[in-house]
Design a protein that fits this description.
mainly alpha; 3 helices; rod-shaped
């Protein structure tokens, strides 16, 4: 029985040795793959972050451009209103009913021009 036990022990040792050798290369292969996957995921995350930043920058630029266009339009509209108000004031007869009414109306404003602008805006 002794020789059979020795033989079994040798076979078992060889089996375990070959089994551990088979697992080791797989483990080495798994590490590079997982490292590659994490690097790949990191690159994808970075790329997505760049794309998102580009879209946010474009959105911001478009909003800024729209805001500037709106401000320019409002400034043009105000200039046109000022011109209309100046023309209206030049034609206004101070002693007419409308002129006397406007004189009273403009008392609450810093200038007659601002009062005329307000008056013309409300009556448009």
């Amino acid at each position: 029985m002794d020789s059979i036990d020795k033989l079994l022990a040798e076979v078992k040792a060889e089996y375990e040795e070959s089994k551990s050798e088979q697992h080791q290369p797989k483990t080495n292969l798994i590490k590079p793959i997982s490292q590659f996957q994490s690097k790949s995921e990191s690159l994808i995350d970075n790329l997505l972050a760049e794309v998102k930043a580009d879209f946010e920058q474009k959105d911001f630029s478009e909003k800024l451009q729209r805001q500037q266009e709106l401000e320019e339009l409002q400034a043009k509209k105000l200039e046109e209103l000022k011109k209309q108000a100046k023309d209206w004031l030049a034609k206004l007869e101070p002693l007419s009913i409308e002129g006397l009414w406007f004189e009273r109306f403009s008392e609450g404003y810093p200038s007659k021009l601002e009062a005329a602008i307000e008056y013309l805006q409300t009556n448009d």
